[in-house]
Amino acid sequence: MMFLLSLIFLFVRINGKFNLLLLSFAIALLFYKREYGVMLGVNGTDDVIAYMRIYEESLTLSLSDIFVRFVKVPSPHEPLWNLIPWILGHVFFVSTKSFVFIYYFLSILLLFWAIKSYAKDDYLIIVLLMFLFTPDSIYSIFHTWRQQMAFIVYLMGLISIRNGNTVNGFLLIFLTPFFHLSAMYFVFVGVSAFIFLDKTAEVKYDKFRTLLYAIVFSIFIFLFSRIFYGLLEFSGIDKMNSILSTDSVMNTSAAVTSLYKYALFLILIPFLFVIGKWETFLSLIIMSSILYAFIFPTQYGIYQRLQVFAFPLFSFYIYALMGFVKSKWYLSIVIIMCFVSGMYRVSVIKDGVVSWMGYGSFFDPFMGIIRLLMLG
Length: 376
What we know:
Blueprint (H helix, E strand, L loop, with lengths): L1 H10 L4 H17 L15 H11 L4 H10 L6 H12 L5 H24 L3 H10 L6 H4 L2 H18 L3 H10 L7 H17 L7 H29 L4 H5 L4 H24 L4 H19 L4 H11 L2 H10 L5 H21 L3 H8 L9 H7 L1
């Protein structure tokens, strides 16, 4: 449906608000009507079960408790995210199952609204790129809810900065660790990238000089990554030892190796196009998550979370690059290529959220993108 609508929207404009609500509701229903508590990979479990318990626990808490316990044990008690289930429980008195659906709907609606505020009527193109070019981008939408909400707020901040509202943009970015602590990594990255680009804005564009600046920025990320590691330990994130390492050397090697493809893509683009400040800003943020994997290759759990946070920005980056292309037919070809690429990706991944999006393998057999397409 997204594939067809994104092609149609290149040529025909339809009421955007109605489609925004309808698409958000449809995807929320797709995620909601499933089996809960299943394994999402070799070491992955369904976090929605934990969020159901958090919601039920919030019914016993006072408003002050939300903030007091964050001071004592920061993770997973980030106050701004925990306010959401508290309000739904204490103000609207919804059931646990209703909480799950409402949260899915609201988070997806907020995400799509943020995308629409950036791309206007072309927002479905970015949604398609997000779901198919980097299909693991939906991992956080599916069940790592605190991180997903942090990303949505971070994205709103980036868009505000792009629109010239720097103060409000950075205010939103600085709030993101209070939704999920891992966002503090991207707070540093975002601020550093902005300062870096601001200081070099007057420098005449040169491809090799740009590469040199990227290397200097990478050194800053290298130094901060080690500081970030210490902050994670201090914050009291649960199961730190299991998060920091992976049981399979082969799994780690394959994951890091696959990142070289994305890194190479980001490095080559400035040599093919004269990209602008916004595109460079996005590429530095995305590259920072890849660099962490190269610095700490065995910390699979951490850099996977960082990439799940950053990789949705690839869709904005590619969409921005599409601005160099004026032909709608050429854009149609790009969308079709992304669709085919996404279908291939889900066909080779045997488990996890990405596979489910393709085939619905361990859930209702009538779910999944490929099954939905075949069934109409």
